[in-house]
């Protein structure tokens, strides 16, 4: 099967699934369900397993299985495996963070590690413990080693997190450049921009200096590190980010001065979802695949927020106010 034929097939398959995905209307019905159990059972219409008798930890495991199943299926269909790696690499670096933090506090990382990455969790953990960096991709191996050394020197897990974040976004940019997709480049760039906007707002809010912010900033965005560092106030930061992030940047200016973070965080996530809209106009190709994979991530986040909120007895209106936009 040619690359074009493969994309024609997979695009048709994914388009057929979109009506089953969680939409805002379906999310409202979940929030209006009379009980947590009925809310959870209603998710069967979107292809989820029955989570009506699960606790919060079991729900998280079920959602991880859902994501892993989607990744496994698409791995056998995609003509460009690197496209799936764009979404899996996040979980490799999540696992690296879990390993380092667990070592710092003397706990077992296995329960918190994800199976959604490129590298099986057990393989990464064994490679780390046995110092077999050859078993890991080059940049990840280097970042994990550097994070371990940094943590041993500083004893500060946050600094190790910053180091791993930089490596993650650098690898994300490399994958995007390898695939040479303008749509993917736009998507990965707004991921980096939204991350940097959040870091700038939080740094200003906490009264941190430029050295702290420099450590937190990641590569791959459209706004350079130097421009962000030179912005001395919340208003200055807001002026740097336009397009889909303009609303988030305006809310961030207020949050940097001590205002509520909830609306700002929500606007950052909604800006990322908004970049996917153009994929709906494309008949076939990498665009529908990228949009679908990103939509699955957004949907799982929404399902987690709804189910764990309902399970904890949080008022539906409170959950509703925090719910992000959905692609479907």
Characteristic key phrases:
globular; V-type ATP synthase subunit C fold; mainly alpha; 328 residues
Task: Report low-confidence residues grouped into runs of 5 or more.
Answer: none
Give the CA-based shape: globular
The helix content is: 55-70%
- Provide the residue-averaged pLDDT: 92
Order of helices and strands: HHHHHHHHHHHHHHHH
**What is the beta-strand fraction?**
under 5%
Mind summarizing the main beta sheet? none
Question: How are the secondary structure elements laid out?
Answer:
Elements: H1 3-17, H2 24-32, H3 36-42, H4 56-75, H5 81-105, H6 121-129, H7 138-154, H8 157-179, H9 182-206, H10 210-216, H11 225-230, H12 234-240, H13 246-256, H14 262-274, H15 286-311, H16 316-322
Helix pairs in contact: 1-15, 2-3, 4-15, 5-6, 5-7, 5-8, 7-8, 8-9, 9-10, 9-13, 9-14, 12-13, 13-14, 15-16
């Amino acid at each position: 099967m040619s690359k074009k034929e493969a994309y024609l097939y997979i695009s048709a398959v994914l388009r057929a699934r979109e009506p089953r995905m969680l939409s805002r209307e379906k999310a409202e019905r979940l929030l209006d369900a009379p009980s947590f159990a009925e809310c959870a059972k209603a998710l069967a219409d979107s292809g989820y397993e029955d989570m009506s008798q699960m606790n919060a930890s079991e729900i998280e495991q079920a959602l991880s299985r859902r994501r892993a199943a989607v990744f496994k299926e698409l791995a056998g269909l995609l003509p460009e495996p690197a496209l799936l790696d764009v979404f899996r690499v996040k979980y490799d670096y999540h696992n690296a963070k879990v390993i380092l933090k667990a070592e710092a506090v003397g706990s077992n990382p296995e329960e918190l590690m994800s199976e959604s990455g490129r590298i099986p969790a057990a393989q990464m953990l064994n490679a780390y413990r046995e110092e077999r960096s050859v078993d890991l991709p080059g940049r990840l191996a280097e970042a994990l080693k550097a994070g371990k050394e940094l943590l041993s020197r500083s004893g500060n897990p946050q600094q190790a997190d910053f180091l791993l974040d930089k490596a993650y976004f650098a690898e994300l940019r490399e994958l995007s450049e390898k695939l040479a997709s303008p749509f993917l480049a736009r998507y990965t760039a707004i991921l980096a921009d939204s991350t940097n906007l959040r870091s700038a707002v939080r740094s200003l809010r906490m009264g941190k200096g430029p050295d702290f912010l420099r450590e937190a900033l990641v590569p791959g965005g459209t706004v350079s590190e130097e421009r962000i560092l030179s912005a001395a106030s919340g208003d200055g930061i807001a002026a740097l980010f336009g397009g889909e992030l303009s609303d988030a940047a305006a809310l961030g200016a207020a949050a940097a001065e001590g205002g509520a973070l909830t609306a700002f965080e929500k606007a950052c996530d909604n800006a990322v979802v908004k970049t996917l809209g153009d994929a709906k106009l494309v008949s076939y190709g990498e665009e529908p695949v990228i949009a679908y994979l990103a939509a699955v991530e957004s949907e799982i986040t929404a399902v987690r927020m709804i189910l764990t909120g309902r399970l904890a007895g949080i008022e539906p209106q409170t959950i509703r106010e925090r719910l992000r936009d959905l692609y479907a």
